[in-house]
């Protein structure tokens, strides 16, 4: 089977080269059959890599430890689902998965668009297959998953060798959500290759209207959806598996996935300006080039070891190849952009600074600033070492202090954008639209402030004798105050969203005679992009509220014997039992803990400490979480004392964490709605003249 | 006499009542300082949250933080103690001085530069619009009426 896989990889490489050559020569000599052959070859590459991937699946399922990659990442007693997920648990397999997804996307693009954009598609083929060539080369020459295990015989000869068992999968990866996290992440990262390829094809073919944007809108949303989902899955994994009580630690690898997502978000907003007004054409090109580059850069960060990370298990020597590929892709794209600048002139001009176009521009600015802050934080230790020769750390305090104010302002713009009309918003509409959201935000702020949230506002610097500038820089807002601002902004945005639905549905029910619920449903389904977008924004509101809760986490760490009680806020935990469990894959020490809320038992929790049997016999913590809308009680059992009678227990009280996961679900739902085609409208009832409402006047202004 | 006894008793109770608060404050101070330090075991985590099993360093470092604070040192003096021992990389964020100040300033400088650029482009776009906009006054009342009528018939769509 390994030989078939090896052959499929070699064939994929050859077919990819042929596809690029046939597409480019076909364009040059205007030979339609050659161009079609290049397209077919692109689909053929997908078939080859599918074959290679299935071969690897087979080798993992049958535990063929004669293959180096299988022996290094699996073992006989690993459950079947983890044997399959172990395929992307290391370098070679994860690269193969990436390459396979890329050719899968390419094949879908070919099938979907071939008859639609004849001038652009050969270039799309060439660009996508250009990326694919990099990956197929990596599979074949640098990180081949089908290499055999060899031992060095006396005399230096390399002889095949089959170990009795494999090294096993990294225990941190033996978590079901993390088993699907990498494929979802790759679907996101690879997905940005499609709009990038269309953007390059648009420039190469000089078809610089908005066709490329309209064609790839859904592709971009799909990539953005997968990337966002993967980020949340990663957060959930960190929360459940790493045992430090949080879901986001600003690790370089988390940052690596956040950066393309931030730029993708900016792109999704700014393409609307190009579609509606024919503006920001150059900017959209810049954004998609940056988004794709950041996808590659993220992978480079994860695998190069250039910065230290909790994802150290993914590091290898392939960083240099990725760096070279990034430089080639970026310089080629930028050269093309500079060359085509004269063709990318705006078709319209900005009528007013107070308009939806300008709010999108500021939204883009904030998203990019946030991305730059993350990039700067990730890379600053490297710059510091290069320039000053001093190794420093840029950890969570830096990212929180720099990014939190930016994120709060972004949330404010999330509320403002939809309230502004295209072209120009009048003072009246501003008053009408802002009054209630602002009033609710202010009211929520006052209520929370009176209840003690947000106080103290400022944290004074410790050393007051410093220079004035440093002293000023030393002052910072407290996390509680940021939480207050975050909740105020969330209220502001939530009220704007509810009003938009209410106004639209009310206007619709006046026009059609539908009841309010029907009107909301039909309104959403007849303009999925707009109302799906609002649902996405609402998902962010929930996420933001969950994130604000992190300002109030507290924890207690103690050694407790059977029957001992641990108190945290309104909860009390009682250690009932300490036991041992033995499975083929691991041995576990488990604490049984009763959880009481205000004296009433609400749950029995079972935090564990596991020692995995394969390989280096790593130890992990398996936390136990009691989750409610209000808070999580998060229990870590880090082991028992030598006599086995007392347990080392750490308990975290984490407010509002469930809102983060709920926000993620709503966000996904909104994206799926936005991806749906608009439902065609049916016959409508003519309303009475007297039924005209404020909402209709407001809509009149927005439409005009 | 009884009054004096009661006063003393009350004072004693007050002191006893504040002891847990003082301990809680110390714990909070230890956590605050630990959040400004990195665990040096290579886990790339902040000292306060590094709880991986059998970590060879975090326990010792936490105890050292507590000992240094107990000796009456200020938070900054404790951080300086760790920097002296392990180098600047033990701090979880770069100090806001010298070259490292650029770490803190660059994101905001970039944001400012971006804002200036955005305002510049918006003004340029607007100036072009003023130049190219029709100079004659058009009576839009007719179109506004038409929109109102259309809106009665159709739902709002973007």
Describe the structure.
- The complex is a heterodimer of chains A (704) and B (158).
- Chain A is an alpha+beta fold and 704 residues long.
- Helix content of chain A is 61%, strand content 12%.
- Chain A contains 21 helices and 14 strands.
- In chain A, strands 6, 7, 8, 9, 10 and 11 form a 6-stranded antiparallel beta sheet that branches. A 4-stranded antiparallel beta sheet of chain A has the order 5-14-13-12, with no helix packed on it.
- In chain A, helix 9 (211-242) runs antiparallel to helix 10 (252-277).
- Chain B is mostly helical.
- Chain B has helices at residues 2-34, 58-70, 75-86, 101-132, 141-153.
- Residues 16-25 of chain B have low confidence and may be disordered.
- In chain B, helix 1 packs across helix 2.
- Chain B folds into 2 domains: 2-93, Orthogonal Bundle (Helicase, Ruva Protein, domain 3), CATH 1.10.8.640; 101-153, no CATH class.
- Chains A and B meet through helix 13, helix 14, helix 16, helix 17 and helix 18 of A and helix 4 and helix 5 of B.
- Characterize the main sheet of chain B: none
CATH topology of the domain at 171-348 and 359-367 in chain A: Four Helix Bundle (Hemerythrin (Met), subunit A)
For the sheet with most strands of chain A, the description reads: 6 strands, antiparallel
Helix content of chain A: 55-70%
